[in-house]
Amino acid sequence: MQTYAIVGKNVPRNDAEAKARGAALYTDDLKLPGMLVGRILRSPVAHARIKHIDVSKALALPGVKCVITGEDTPKVKYGNWRLFPDTQDEYPLAVDKVRFIGDEVAAVAALDADAAAEALDLIEVEYEELPGLFDTGAATQEGAPVIHEYCPNNISVNRKIQYGDIDKGFSESDYIREDTFHVHAVSHAYLEPCSSLAQVDLDGRITLWTSTQTPYIVQCLLASTLGMRENDVRVIKPFVGGGFGGKMELRPFEFCAAFLAKKTGRPVKFTLNREEEFLTGRRRHAMTLHSKVGFKKDGTLMAKDLKIRLDGGAYNAMGPTATFLCGNFGAMLYRYPNYRFLGEHVYTNKPPASAMRGFGAPQSLYATEVQMNMAAEELGIDPVEIRLKNAQVTGDKIPDVATISSCAFKESIQKVAEMSDWKNKRKNLKPGQGIGIGCYSFISGGVFNWFNTQFPFSAAEIRAYADGTVHYLTMASDIGQGSDTVLKQILAEELGLRMEDIRITSADTAMTPQADLGSWGSRVTLMAGNAILDAAKKLKAQLFGAVSARFNLNVIYELECKDGRVQAKGRPEKGVSFGEAVAMVQKANRGEQVVVRGAYTPRDKGLVTPAFSFGAQVAEVEVDQETGVASVKQMWTAHDCGTVINPKSVEGQLNGSIQMGLGYALSEQFVMKDGQTLTTNFLDYKMPSALDMPPSKVVHIDSYEPEGPMGAKEAGEGLVSPTAPAIAHAVHDATGYWCKDLPITPEKILDGMKQNKK
Amino acid sequence: MKHQIRLNVNGDDYELLVDPWRTLNEVLREDLNLTGTKLGCGVGDCGACTVLVDGKSVSSCITLAVAVDGKKIETVEGLAASGEKLHPIQESFIEKGAIQCGFCTAGMEMSALYLLRKNPSPTEEEIREGLSGHLCRCTGYNQIVEAIADAADRMKTDRGKGVKP
After folding, report:
1. Which residue from B minimizes the CA distance to A29?
2. Domain residue extents for chain A
3. Residue B163: its pLDDT value, please?
4. How large is the ipTM?
């Protein structure tokens, strides 16, 4: 194992002090002279034609500077799947129709928030209501009302994956089971409500500061919806208070801020309130998963047939990706010699679902893992053993989809069983106690270019200075996960510099190199990290050349950047300081600044991702037999994320994942009635608090991903998947109840216990 | 009609004219440009806006500015004046990995200050109870709990050296 100076160390985050002092500026903290306040009018009905909008009273209100509706806009549809324009189904403001409660109808810019709020009440909209469709069953019935004209059956996307011979696989199986699972929608619930501030420059160009995970995507889609050129739109990401997938698209308030700034000539800021976030923010897809799986008597997997329907809500958003990824994740973890997947993304008159931490994996793997535990029980095989028997290993392929280039899944399962004392614990549980296991695999960024970017997937620029410092520029977006720190660690390691020698500018589309697709799908460490290494290699070639010439080094000498020096390997006397080496290169180029660029785009890596991570988790649960309340007593996790760049950051990701997984399993849900979201505050939407968190132990399995920078791969997202199935298994162990319908509420547990007694 | 109020914020005196419906959060963020205090929910559920009023922790989003007329307000900006040495709570938050996106941090730190003044040696359970009015979506809380326990130790050492917390 290679030893590193900075990689693998608990380097404090470079933004931690600013955040601890309250000095880090988020979008809503920004103010510009003459700034107006924007607000959005939203549809109170789930499905309707807009007959007429009258904004005259709102416009007449003192303090109101501008009111816009869809009719005032260029009416250009947008959506992240730019490669397939048919999937782009959203207007920034409704044109002719509204499709969910909360759909954006009009926007106001006013001198202050009070005037903006009052103006919303004065906009008169006449709706002709249409029947609403609130679940995938109703939406796919013959003759159901059509939500989008282009899509007569309301199924906007279907994706298939198939390999092997599924019929043969089942015919050779000794044991087959079929189950239907329902998983529910949950909220990203990032703490920072979305905010955007737009300014028109003196030359008519737009600058937008916005709470986003994807500045490049916002830049491009904002340009197209405004009818402007991409280079005339500059998107800057200030500090962002979490995203988890909920801030990775162009959003209507971003468009409205820019459009109103153009119309008024003044800066305009929109900040959503929490109610708007819960009512209209993106959410994780609710799904119905029908899974048929066949085994040999000895537990060997023979075949899997998986059908999933995603409740997409009113627009596609990132639904097409989630649909495909469900099928990919359905084929992960275990070796399915024969596999078939059909995923359908269905429109309903509900707030759109989209990407959320795990991106299809929490749903798909809930079905996989619960079913695996059910099968193990019926086959009389230990759940750990049946997993080890079927686990994927390095080099395994999903035909036409992916190759697994590193995999320490078996080691993770073995380790978590050992840490949790799995065998003994299972034997010695008291009534009401249970222990369960769940596993995950996740991607390190996507390969499929749905955004149709013409630039590399990630890019890096390094400017080197004679004072021994560098300036690193990247469009990668730190949204709280700590990518700025991790990327600086990779660069510092590669150039033999200290963290404080590196200035970083990130996520400004006019200043940082084109492009980076943003923070989603756990792509940043691997992709932006590889772009750094590419740039650093070019810089080192120049520095090494200069030092070689200066010391007249034999051509067989290897050179290195180490401890702030550029030198013959292991020979500090045959070398100079980093700054001196930069000065030499600069002199040789008649003073020209030393600048290098690097890029990374995954190639020849299948359809899904350049690398997969793996892990296993065990949960110990206690269920109150009287009330049915389940409480998690302890979590153990062993996972393979390749080289760990920053252990404390990885543990932070794990703890955060457990919080989210715990909420997904037990307490969080959107309560809906006829398309109306009823849980619109944190009292009703029950997110785990500090008192709910179980103690947690973790082991990072030592592994190396050949495609990753210094062997690193995904660490922040996959871990959200195993928690719910591990808890469901433990609840079954404690009560006999199998939850096939998340969340696992006390009512369901008590009902399940009653059923078992009958 | 606007009301004239006086606030002492982090040791600085302010005289302000405010509408009676304006919250302390709005006055801090918009009028005084003290944006370190955040607004996460606006209805007192999430704790991101927590400040101390006469030494007690309150949600600034549901506290009217006129209701704190004449009172002493402490916000995150007052923990350590800009450029000066960090408060032990801030040091612990940084070192223990208690900060990710940072949006809940200011509120968490202010509640930690309130807790540790009241109870310089809290148990883990007491720390968790002290944080029960706060939500965090990034950290899973455990590193925040660790940071506050660590800060308690640092503050005791500082007190031994005669430093006022």
Report:
1. B35
2. 16-23+457-600, 31-130+191-242+247-280, 376-448+607-757
3. 64
4. 0.98
